[in-house]
From TrEMBL:
<dbReference type="Pfam" id="PF00561">
    <property type="entry name" value="Abhydrolase_1"/>
</dbReference>
<feature type="domain" description="AB hydrolase-1">
    <location>
        <begin position="35"/>
        <end position="136"/>
    </location>
</feature>
<dbReference type="InterPro" id="IPR050228">
    <property type="entry name" value="Carboxylesterase_BioH"/>
</dbReference>
<dbReference type="InterPro" id="IPR000073">
    <property type="entry name" value="AB_hydrolase_1"/>
</dbReference>
<protein>
    <submittedName>
        <fullName>Pimeloyl-ACP methyl ester carboxylesterase</fullName>
    </submittedName>
</protein>
<dbReference type="InterPro" id="IPR029058">
    <property type="entry name" value="AB_hydrolase_fold"/>
</dbReference>
């Protein structure tokens, strides 16, 4: 039976250690003036989170690539939790840029994805055309990373989608979703049916072990953020975010010489980036970058 064509193409590739990694491609690749976009999800999130934004950007003529990190979504799981180390995830993304033929991109990163964007600024600056940091900065509010790792580090099986939605609404009540369908879509981007008839979180809880060790070892994210100063930058903050504080947000916007910023009042971690204010700001940034590339 025929059906409507998919908005994206599905691809897999092998990481340097053999783990199978999945990514989506939206839009048509060409050599025009519009920059390609790389969308990077949060710590335990996957490519489904960017479906709305990716469709919007593809409709504007951009090529968009969105991966599932190892241990998330349709990418393979690791036998050893140490193989989820942050440095390995960054290396996976650098490999993806080569596999997908993305020589220069605008990176839109939510939470962990934004931290990876900062790392690319330091490690692969020639690949960047611009950056959007979504509710992430060089400092994370004390205690919040531990709270995130605690819920990421254990499965939470539920019997049905209503239960999944209720759990997510209790865990993240300050998201910008306003309709039952938006919450259902978010639940379907978070849970997958298991062989036991229950819905399970769509990530390997072992990823929390590696990131907890990474947090304890410490990374100088301010130095990485400083690597973004040559590039057009947009910082998005949820107005009641407990991850990106107002103080850090203000310091970031003052540090970068040409930083654009958006705050979404009443929204927590993390904005979906499909809010009208976010779409307008992202489109404006991309228009500037496209003009510079012509």
């Amino acid at each position: 039976m025929g059906g409507a064509p998919s908005a994206y193409r599905e691809r897999f590739f092998s990481a340097s250690d053999g783990v199978s990694l999945y990514f989506r491609e939206y839009g048509t690749r060409d050599d025009g003036p519009l920059p390609a976009i790389l969308c990077l999800p949060g710590l335990a999130r996957n490519s489904k989170d960017f479906d709305g934004l990716a469709r919007h950007l593809a409709a504007r003529g951009h090529s968009v690539v969105v991966p599932d990190y190892r241990g998330r979504g349709r990418s393979g799981r690791c036998k050893n939790w140490r193989d989820y180390a942050p440095a390995q995830v960054v290396e996976d993304i650098r490999h993806l840029l080569d596999i997908a033929g993305l020589h220069r991109v605008v990176v839109i990163g939510t939470s962990l994805g934004g931290a990876i964007a900062m790392a690319l600024g330091a490690m692969s600056p020639s690949r960047l055309a611009g950056v959007v940091l979504n509710d992430i900065g060089p400092d994370i509010a004390e205690g919040e990373s531990g709270a995130i790792l605690r819920y990421v580090g254990q499965d939470h099986p539920v019997p049905d989608w209503d239960s999944a939605i209720a759990w997510l609404q209790g865990l993240m009540p300050d998201l910008s979703f306003t309709t039952p369908q938006e919450w259902r879509d978010f639940a379907e981007a978070t849970f997958v049916p298991g062989d036991d008839g229950l819905l399970h979180l769509d990530w390997d809880p072992a990823i929390a072990l590696s990131f907890a060790r990474g947090a304890s070892e410490g990374y100088d994210l301010w130095a990485l953020f400083g690597s973004l100063t040559p590039f057009p930058l947009l910082v998005v903050r949820g107005g009641v975010s407990r991850i990106l504080t107002e103080a850090t947000f203000q310091r970031m916007t003052a540090w970068h010489p040409a930083c654009r910023s958006v705050t979404l009042p009443g929204v927590g971690h993390a904005p979906a980036l499909t809010e009208p204010t976010c779409l307008e700001a992202i489109d404006a940034l991309l228009t500037v970058i496209s003009g510079h590339q012509e």
